[in-house]
Amino acid sequence: MFGAGNFGQRYIEHNSGTADIVGAIDNDCDLHGLKLFGRIPVYPVEAARGLAWDRIVVCNNSGDIVRAEIHEQLTGMGVPEGMINFYPEEHMPEWIDQRRGFFRDFSCYASLNTIDGAVAECGVFSGETAKFLNLYFRERRLYLFDSFEGFSEEDINSERAFEDEAFLAGPLNKVGMLRQPSVKVVMDKIMFPDNVVIKKGWVPDSFEGVDDVFCFVNLDMDLYAPMLAALLFFWPRMSQGGIILLHDYFHPELPGVKRAVDAFEAECGAVCKFPIGDGCSLGIVKP
Q1: Pairing, β 84-86 against β 118-122
Q2: Hey, which end of the chain has fewer CB within 10 Å, N or C?
Q3: Full strand arrangement of the beta sheet holding 272-275
Q4: pLDDT 10s digit of each residue in the chain, 287 long?
Q5: Given CA atoms 287, 100, 166, 172 in this order, what sign does their dihedral have?
Q6: Is residue 120 a contact partner of residue 214, using CB atoms and an 8 Å limit?
Q7: Cα–Cα separations (whole angstroms), residue 257 to 84, 95, 103, 109
């Protein structure tokens, strides 16, 4: 990648696990010798001649003139035209970028305000949000809970029993609809694997043996029964000021998520709720 600044680091965040980034090159000599995220070395531009790469991605958002100058610099070094790509700012869907920004901001807030505890995600799927949780909370233990087999038949049948027309007509009303590729698919996207604990199984059985406090939890299981079980499990284990994020709270075809929050509040009392701005997720704060 050409560019080790903020835009280049954003490229790394978005492509961790999907691209083998062998190094960054940059014209800024003050950056040479650094390692981005502790693992990606920064070289002078000329060093690209000695590296093994398939393409160079230009990570610079300073405008067309600067990008054209970079392009000219690379082709002048003999880099073939077809091996130069440009990283677009709109690379990620807006909702992913907003959620990623929330993870980043809250991780900083939690550190500054000494909100202790581990981090967890229930409903990992292919690991697209887990990689950001691991990146931004890299000093904390990250628990990843998933069956890696899709929905359980028991949870699907419980959801159908509510006879909600939106869910019954929706695409998730099918056992195995979200079958997970593998644990390896997730772990290949993780930048700091030593801090990750995989808990394979269906909720709440996969909670067995977990004895920790938490500062941040992301719940993305779509259905009433596992969402409610997770809320009841994590809430007493949250640090003061910690946040539980509930994905799909506003999803019209997944009414079980909101129903789970209502049932949780009926049992535990009202909680402070706020949307995070991605159009899907609701946060609740532990007072």
Answers
A1: unpaired
A2: C
A3: 196-200, 142-146, 118-122, 214-219, 238-246, 282-285, 272-275
A4: 999 987 888 788 777 667 889 999 999 898 899 998 888 999 999 999 888 888 899 998 766 678 888 988 999 998 887 788 888 654 444 555 678 889 989 999 999 999 999 999 999 988 888 988 998 999 999 999 999 888 888 888 888 888 888 788 776 776 555 556 689 888 988 888 999 999 999 999 999 999 999 999 999 999 999 999 999 999 999 999 999 999 999 988 889 999 999 999 999 999 999 998 878 899 999 99
A5: negative
A6: yes
A7: 44, 18, 21, 27
For residues 115 and 98, what is the distance between their CA atoms, to the nearest angstrom?
22
Coil, strand or helix at 159: helix
All structural domains of the chain, each given as residue ranges with its CATH number in brackets, are 6-86 (3.40.50.720), 94-285 (3.40.50.150)
What are φ and ψ of residue 261, in 5° steps? -65, -40
Contacts of 14 (CB under 8 A, 6+ apart): 91, 92
Name residue, tokens 């029993």.
161
pTM above 0.85, yes or no: no
**Residue 2 phi, psi dihedral angles, 5° rounding:** -100, 115
- Residue 210 in contact with residue 143, Cβ under 8 Å? yes
Of residues 138, 147, 115, the one with CA closest to residue 215: 115
CA distance 172 to 132: 25
